[in-house]
Design a protein that fits this description.
- By secondary structure, the protein is α/β, with parallel strands linked by helices.
- It has one domain.
- The protein has 6 helices and 3 strands; from the N terminus they run H-E-H-H-E-H-E-H-H.
- Strands 1-2-3 form a 3-stranded parallel β-sheet, sandwiched between helices.
- Strand 2, helix 4 and strand 3 form a beta-alpha-beta unit.
- The protein is globular and about 40 Å long.
Length: 118
């Protein structure tokens, strides 16, 4: 893991707006900081998979928690096509889901090293 993290330009951490999902994502960021990767943690993109939710969790508060810690947060809404599992057909995704993945791709690409390879 150290070799991979040493070469990484950025990381994507996936969680959910639930107690366990947000907790695991937050602990992942904590682990990065504790193990000398505070820069990667701060520059991370968090994806919140909103296929599960809980009335006991304030989703806006979860979003704000991660927005205060990382470069970007992308909530991916529930999508029946993704819920089936298996192969993804982009044409079957709801527009809001496609938009979320487009935003995610743009945020990840923003961190690409602009220096030429070699």
């Amino acid at each position: 893991m150290e070799g991979t993290l040493a070469r990484a330009d950025s990381v994507v951490v996936v969680g959910a707006p639930t107690v366990d999902g947000a907790g695991r994502a937050s602990r992942t960021l904590d682990w990065l900081v504790a193990h000398g990767h505070a820069g990667l943690a701060a520059d991370a993109v968090v994806v919140l998979s909103c296929d599960r939710h809980s009335a006991e969790v304030d989703a806006d508060r979860v979003l704000e928690h991660f927005r205060s810690r990382v470069r970007g947060v992308v909530p991916v809404p529930h999508d029946p096509h993704l819920a089936t599992g298996g192969r993804i057909d982009p044409a079957r995704l709801r527009p809001a889901t496609s938009d979320a993945f487009l935003e995610l791709g743009a945020l990840v690409a923003d961190a690409f090293d602009a220096r030429p390879a070699g």
